[in-house]
């Protein structure tokens, strides 16, 4: 298997950008996730239909369209910021619902049903709190978010170039 180059550098750049929010570590993983026990976030560079649905959800629910990668990262920061603001019973409910939704998604082969399940997931109290935090931050601090994206994007370009990924010649912009 071919070694992926510049992952550590990309992780360091993203960690540096998120450190002011209290995030201790950011690493590339299979999905976006926040780990409460050590303030650790994982991200992915593989965009899926779920990411498109999340973007659509945020656009409809919060009237915001922005770069998906930054939105997802800040959503995970939102979990960190909301940590402690969720009652234990609500947290348990969210955990149970996520398990139920995950089982349903795995057992379905109907795209519309899976989309509906994803929207249920996006609307869970802990997910809404994290998304709301991200949306508020993006709307209140557009210059900071743009600068954050520019710094991360610069490193992403180097990452893709070093790993011979085509199609990243055109700059992506924040909307």
Strand order of the largest sheet: 1-3-2
**What structural category do the secondary elements indicate?**
mainly alpha
Shape: globular
Q: In whole angstroms, how far apart are the ends?
A: 37 Å
Largest sheet: 3 strands, mixed
**Beta-sheet strand percentage?**
5-15%
Which short descriptors sum up this protein?
7 helices; 3 strands; globular; disordered C terminus
How would you portray this structure in words?
There is one protein chain. Helix 1 (about 5-20) packs antiparallel against helix 7 and helix 2 (about 50-60) crosses helix 5. The protein has one domain. The chain has seven helices and three strands, in the order H-E-E-E-H-H-H-H-H-H. It has helices at about 5-20, 50-60, 70-80, 90-105, 110-120, 125-140, 140-160; strands at about 25-30, 35, 40-45. It is globular and about 40 Å long.
């Amino acid at each position: 298997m071919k070694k992926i180059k510049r992952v550590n550098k990309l992780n360091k750049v993203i960690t540096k950008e998120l450190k002011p929010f209290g995030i201790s570590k950011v690493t590339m993983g299979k999905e976006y996730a926040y780990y409460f026990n050590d303030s650790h976030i994982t991200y992915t560079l593989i965009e899926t239909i779920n990411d498109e649905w999340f973007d659509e959800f945020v656009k409809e629910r919060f009237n915001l369209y922005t770069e998906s990668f930054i939105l997802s990262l800040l959503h995970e920061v939102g979990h960190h910021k909301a940590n402690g603001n969720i009652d234990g019973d609500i947290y348990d409910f969210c955990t149970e619902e996520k398990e139920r939704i995950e089982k349903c998604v795995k057992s379905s082969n109907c795209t519309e049903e899976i989309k509906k399940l994803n929207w249920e997931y996006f609307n869970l109290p802990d997910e809404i709190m994290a998304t709301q935090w991200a949306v508020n931050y993006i709307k209140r601090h557009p210059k900071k978010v743009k600068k954050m994206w520019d710094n991360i994007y610069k490193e992403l370009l180097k990452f893709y170039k070093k790993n011979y990924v085509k199609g990243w010649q055109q700059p992506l912009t924040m909307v």
